[in-house]
Amino acid sequence: MNCNQIQKIIYSTKSDELSPAQEEIIKTHIAKCAECKDVFEKVQHADEILSRIKNQIPVLTNEEELTRSIVERINSKENFSPRGNVETFWNYLIELVSARTARLAFGLVLLFCVLSYTYMEYNDTKKIMNLEQKIDSRWNKNFTYASILQQENGLLNFLSNVYKFSEGSTSYLKLSKDWVVLKKEDLQALFNDYNKLDEATRKRLNEIRNQLPITVSSKFDSAVNDNEINSLRKEVERLNKELEKIKSQRGMK
Amino acid sequence: MQNNIPGERLNELIDKSKKGDVHAFEIIVRTYQRYAFAVAFRILCCEEDAKDIVQESFVRIWKHLESYDTNVKFTTWMYKIIVNLCYDKLKSERRKKKLFDNMTDEIQEIKSLSSVNLEKEFTNKETADLIKNFSKELSAKQKTVFVLRDMEDLSIQEVVEITGMSESSVKTNLFFARQNIRKKIIELEK
Predict the structure, then answer these.
(1) In this complex, is the C-beta atom of B50 within 8 Å of any C-beta atom belonging to chain A?
(2) pLDDT in tens, B70-110
(3) Which domains does chain B have, with CATH numbers?
(4) Closest-CA residue in chain A for B57?
(5) DSSP letters of chain B?
(6) What is the ipTM metric for this complex?
(7) pTM of the model
């Protein structure tokens, strides 16, 4: 061993911790090396000083006061025996929940909130889409007939049907395939238009009407009445309100 | 460490304390608080801080008595709690010192050991000044290991149990601490 290695051992190891082999090596080395001998002696002297400090047990003053303050603290409500009363049981339980567990729980709660919110959003969107579809279908129902007529032969076809079934006093028509709603004044206006037509045209209109792909009920006045129209309107209004409510809750316009 | 309570009696007191007997626990406190103070004082080198740590340690011991494993020596368990608190305190003090670099330390700088009368009994303040001067370049870990092994005379195995460090880590930190402290003393002796 060289001087560096020897000095490293001398500095870092207490003499009573040296193995017999180490002790022998150091003893042999310092016998012939003045520098390492000097270090060895100085370390021994340093150890004497350390030993004096070690033997100097720090004095605890006011022992009684310290004991009292400890006992006071364990007697106070904040500290408790694990087998203490029920009130302190909850404190104990809270203490058992380590910071890591609390963080994990918080993460799980957060994840649950995000998933719940996403699910609610999805459900609401689905509901809104359903309601919009329902409302559309209700109104479409009312205009289907007009739309068919428009596609087929335009106003003349429509007039021909109106003529045929407008001799009664009702303002509504019911077609077997779907609904159509007309005001009495509109019906009258259509009827007047029809009356202005010449005979040939009227004949032509009737021919066209017979070619229409829809059948028309002759009992239109009894099939459609104010109650049915009102209930349809109410249903659409209700659906609209429901839709608006959901949209405003979700902050949609 | 001189144990003032025989093992059987100590176990009996611990059992009673577990059941909420404050008086039994008070006997344990009275017996061990001076040893607890000695180790805390040597690590922290401050009487007030050491007393605070002792108080906090015994409160924690009381709170966690239920989890105390009787296979472990009571003093080892007690030291473990004290050392953990001291270690945290040391680290926070070092952080504070780094943050407020211009803060003056209470340490009484020793220029030479010839000015210190080593023959007389030391006051707590003098002991603290000596330990502080010798160990001011040590890390919290090195200082803790040094105090436990070389001042409290605990075995390496006990130091391992108390600090939770590996044996090789304890030895490395201890060797470095000894080297540093011995060199410091030799330097102050000049």
Answers:
(1) yes
(2) 888 899 999 999 999 998 888 877 766 665 554 445 556 66
(3) 1-102 (1.10.1740.10), 103-190 (1.10.10.10)
(4) A70
(5) ----S-HHHHHHHHHHHHTT-HHHHHHHHHHHHHHHHHHHHHHH--HHHHHHHHHHHHHHHHHTGGG--TTS-HHHHHHHHHHHHHHHHHHHHHHHHHHTTTPPP-----S-GGGS--SSPPPHHHHHHHHHHHHTTS-HHHHHHHIIIIIS---HHHHHHHH---HHHHHHHHHHHHHHHHHHHHHHH-
(6) 0.83
(7) 0.58
